[in-house]
Amino acid sequence: MKFTLKKNNKNCPAEYDSFRSSLLQRFDEANLRLQYKCANWLERKTAHVSRKSWIIILFSFIVFTGGCSIYLIVNSFSGNKTKSITITPITRPTNAVPFKEKSIQLNVAINTTEFEKIVRFHRYMDSLGHSPTGKKLHDSIVHYRPGLLDSIAIVEQYYHSQFKN
Hints:
The chain is an all-alpha fold. Helix content is 64%, strand content 0%.
């Protein structure tokens, strides 16, 4: 299986193909140099180890990993449940944000002059959306202040709810 890039002779100039092939060749050479250096370093570090020592190291590795595997298998089938993972229920933190929307309880009254300013701004924003140049300004305002129109609607609803009560 080849792990090189697919050649497309129709759309690529010859210089690009030669650059790509030389770049891939450089990567291959660098990879081989790195492998060679690592192999030499490992060989130097283990040059003093004899054949008998290698056999002892291999045997102890097999015994250790086999023993760990056997222990895990036997322990998983045993009836001992004290060391198993315990499941604790998830508790809701006290400072969590509620998922249900609550009605906003404000104790502040909005006077008519403030409300008229808000209504004028709401009309201005609506009128911006009808012209091409105003649409750009409207979109930039909404982009930089994403919750502004929603907040205006909430304030208008709150103002109207003051007079219903």
